[in-house]
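Progress report, Aim 2. The chain analyzed during this reporting quarter is listed below.
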Amino acid sequence: MLVFLIEAACITCEQEKKERDHSGIYCLNILQTEMILVQTGNKVTFTTQTDILVDGTGTATGDTLLLTANTFTGEAFTALIVFSPDGHSFSGHYQVADTTGTVKQEGLLTGSKGNCVTYDINANGIPEFITEDFMDLTVIERISRFRSGIGHSSTDGFETCRSMKHYYAPYEAYRENNTVGLFAPVTGTIISVPNDGHGISIGLKNKQIHICPDDQPAFLIVLFHCDLLSSAIQEGKKVQAGELLGYARMYYEDLNEHADNFDVAVWVNTPSGPRMISYFETMQDAVFASYIARGAVSRQDFIITRQERDADPLQCDGEAFLNSGQPENWVVLH
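Predicted C-alpha cells for the chain:
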C-alpha cells in the first residue's frame, strides 16, 4: 500500500511539473528589465520593458522553456531557461546572432518572479553613488560626451539615434596593449558578464561587466570591452569599490584589430522603464575632482542635453551613425 501511494504521488508530481504554468512578471539580469511571460499549454509569448527585444514566442517542456525573438536591429535572440522547483526563478543561456548566424553576444540569463526595484529620477533626482572611478584617468586623452555621435547608436527606448554612454580614449601609447585597468566603481554585485560581441573566439577576453550597487539596487553600471582578470569575475560575485576586475581590451588577436577606446554606461530602472543616464551624473564630488584637475569645469562639459541633440538630430542606419552632428562630441583632457 505504501509503495502504491509513493508511486501515485510521483505520478502526480510529474503531472504537475508538466502542467505548471510559468506565466508572470520576472525581473531579468539583463539590464534589470522586466519580462512579462504568458504561457498557454506548451506555447509561450513574452514581452520586455525595453525596445531591445521585439515581442517573442517560445515553447515549454515541463520546467524548460525555449524562447526566441528578434532584436530591434533584426538580429535573432534565443534563450534556453530552466525554472527552479518552486517556479519562482529561472536560469539559462542566451545568444544573439546576426543574419549570417554569427553570434554577436551571449551570456547567462536569469530571472526572479516579481517586479524589479525602481527609482524615480524625475521625482527624486539622480543620486551620486559612484565612489571610485572605473579606470585610471591619467592614461586617458579624451572622453566622448553623452548623446554624442561617436561609436554607434546606444539608446534606451525613450530616445533614438545617439550614443547614451561614454567612450574613453587612452593616449596612443596605451592603445597598443591591454594594460589599462578597469575597476569596480561601486561596492555591489556582478549580475551579468555577457560576451561583448568582439573577439568571441578568445574565451574570457572581451566581456561586459554589469554591476548593481548595494545601496542603489535600481541602477546598473556597464563596463564594456573587458579582458577579465580571471574566471572568478562572474555572475553573483560581490565586488568592492576600487577592486581591479580586468583590463580594457585594446587589441583583438583573433581579428588582428586595435581599438581606440572603451566605454561605460549607466542604466536606471524607473517606474516607466529602464533609462540611460550619464556616468558623470552619478559621480560623487571626490571622483569628479580628478576631472576638474584635468581641465573640466562642470559635469555638463561631458553631456549634450536632450534638447541640444533633438535640435541637431543625428542620422542612423540601424546602429551606424551617418553623421556626427554639430555639438562637439569629445572632451579633450589637459
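The chain has two domains: 21-113, 121-332. Residues 313 and 329 are 13 Å apart (CA to CA). These observations will guide the mutagenesis work planned for the next reporting period.
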